[in-house]
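Title: Request for sanity check on Phosphoribosyltransferase prediction

Description:
We are preparing a figure and want to confirm that the structure record we downloaded matches what your pipeline produces today. Could someone re-run it with the sequence below and paste the raw structure tokens into this thread? We only need the token string, no images.
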Amino acid sequence: MRSRPRHRFADPVVDRTYRDRREAGAALAARLGGYAGRVDVTVVGLARGGMPVAAEVAGRLGTPLDVLVVRKLGMPWAPEVAFGAIGPDGVIVLNEYADRLSDGEIDTVVAAERAELARQDARYHADHPAAALSGRTVVLIDDGLATGATARAAVEVARRRGAARTVLGVPVAAPDAAQALASVADELVCPYRPGNFDAVGRFYQDFRQISDAEVHGLLG
């Protein structure tokens, strides 16, 4: 039986922005200090935006770093609105927006995202084999939590791969998504959950897109 979920949030503040994902990673690492130097911990960044944050966390904690590809499933007419997410090993999670779609519409989006997931995963792990997660404490890192769909998929992948404990770390999160994910992961660590949340990118001065090459370089 899993241990009771825990969550660690900072007190809400009026406004806060991170300079970039590296600064966000430093703030997150300060909250994850209890995992520093532990031989049973692996830090896993969600591709692509979570990887610079995860690299900073792993470097400060002195833990191995890997990448996990999870893909948002966007509404066909509004791709920015997620009706779920997919991950490796056949993982798929759906939310209430999926009820607005036919099975055929869902299947079309899933097929396209599965193809992109496979492409990214093959590139990132071409010369960096995926880390074995069985029996380990897996610290999953993303650059923010909006709907929580991709984070749910990531937690499920880690569990299917045998993780003994899942810790989800995000520098900023929508309060409702944070509350929901606190009961999904074994532990949720979030330094900032603003009441005026509208999009992850609003809380970064530099929120540029991360390339495949940058992800590959961070693993190297």
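Thanks, this matches our download. The chain has six helices and nine strands.
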